[in-house]
Amino acid sequence: MCIIHKLRKISKQEFLIFLETYITSIIVRFKLMIFSFKYIQKKLKNNSNSTNHSNANENELIELIKLSLKRTKKYTPFRFYCIEQSLTAAAMLKRRKIPFTLYVGIYKNKQQFETHVWLITNNNYIVEKGNYTFSIIQEIHG
To answer: Is the model's pLDDT at 50 over the cut of 80?
Structure first.
């Protein structure tokens, strides 16, 4: 089935969140190619003291963002791994002033190191941590 037919079946709100996710992911991808991660990290950090509050609307929105990240990964023509997913979700949450924590972890697998980036908000994984025991090397609160 064509993507257009599939997207016609979802609600207007789901479609708008998907569209925002898709466009934000393109912007994030270009920023990763142009700027250092340190620069992007500064832009994500929260300068205000926000409390970790959640309500039903926020939880519903968080679930929509998770779903739209999966859709974007499925339909995007470019790379959309954990770092792009986490930064895309972080940008969307920051826009809505929803607090989040982005983690960068490292894991030694035989002779090589593997890195992973995941994001949590309101005790809910937006981008999953995975099954490995990662050593957290960076934690960004937004």
So the answer is: no
- State which residues form the domain around 46: 3-141
DSSP letters spanning 21-77: HHHHHHHHHHHHHHS-HHHHHHHHS--S-------HHHHHHHHHHHHHHHHHHHH-S
Q: For residue 138, what are its two tokens?
A: 């960076």
Question: What sign results for the dihedral spanned by CA atoms 102, 30, 46, 51?
Answer: negative
From CA 55, how far away is CA 78, in angstroms rounded?
34
Characterise 86 by phi-psi region: left (phi > 0), alpha (psi -120 to 50), beta (else): alpha
Count of structural domains within the chain: 1
When pLDDT is averaged across residues 27-38 and rounded to a whole number, the result is 92
